Amino acid sequence: MSDLPHSPAAERNKQPILEALTRILGEGGTALEIASGTGQHAAWFAAAMPQWIWQPTDADARMLPALAGRVAEAALPNLCAPLLLDVMSPRWPSQGPAFAAEEKFDAIYCANMLHIAPWAACAALMQGAARHLLADGLLITYGPYFEEEAAAAPSNLAFDEDLRARNPAWGIRRLEDVVAEASHSGLVLRERHAMPANNLLLVFGR
């Protein structure tokens, strides 16, 4: 049995997210994953979508050895070695050679980051996506959001309170605020998918 770091939440949500991705994404392409964490999503998606080249990244250098271990364990030709990438950095990735100016991605995927990062990370994510997406590329985010027209789930309210107690800069974001921030970078919300455990999968494009 693997002794790599394990996220029970990632284990629970990886299949529902994969099912959504297979409906949203085209037959093949290149995907950049932001905040890969334990790498469970990266390994699962790359295995299920062999026509997609998957590039995992994380902002925490301490996570990279475990993430590299997950990639090595998966041993998939379409799963790349992880890179250090902080969305707040003016260049992506944050260390090593920057992506070539002409290198663009068909998809950028970011799960469960916006609520455990300062609000400025949302703008940085949108700006980076605008730089690194192909003209018809998609930014896909996953996580909990508050919506103006929908009553918040009690579990999300409790989660938000816990997040803000741990760090005042954290917290579940309002969907309307995220959409507005995306618009500043020329991205619009194309699709909204309700997911298990009161989460949403959002699809942004130009």
Count of domain modules: 1
Distance between the termini: 43 Å
Described by strand count, sense and barrel closure, the largest sheet is:
7 strands, mixed
* Alpha plus pi helix count: 6
Q: Report the strand count.
A: 9
From the alpha carbons, calculate the radius of gyration and give it in angstroms.
16 Å
Tell me the helix content.
Answer: 25-40%
Mean pLDDT across residues: 93
Structural class of the helix and strand makeup?
alpha/beta
CATH topology: Rossmann fold
Q: What CATH architecture would you give? A: 3-Layer(aba) Sandwich
**SSE topology string:** HEHEHEEHEEHEHEE
Poorly predicted tracts of residues: none
Structure characterization notes:
The protein has one domain (8-205): 3-Layer(aba) Sandwich (Rossmann fold), CATH 3.40.50. It contains six helices and nine strands. The protein has helices at residues 8-24, 40-48, 64-74, 120-132, 154-166, 175-184; strands at 29-34, 52-58, 83-84, 105-111, 133-143, 145-146, 173-174, 188-195, 199-205. Strands 3-2-1-4-5-9-8 form a seven-stranded mixed beta sheet, sandwiched between helices. Helix 1 (8-24) runs parallel beside helix 2 (40-48).
Please tag this protein with its features.
206 residues; alpha/beta; Rossmann fold; 7-stranded mixed β-sheet; two-stranded parallel ribbon; 9 strands
SSE blueprint and pairings:
Blueprint (H helix, E strand, L loop, with lengths): L7 H17 L4 E6 L5 H9 L3 E7 L5 H11 L8 E2 L20 E7 L8 H13 E11 L1 E2 L7 H13 L6 E2 H10 L3 E8 L3 E7 L1
Parallel strand pairs: 1-2, 1-4, 2-3, 4-5, 6-7
Antiparallel strand pairs: 5-9, 8-9
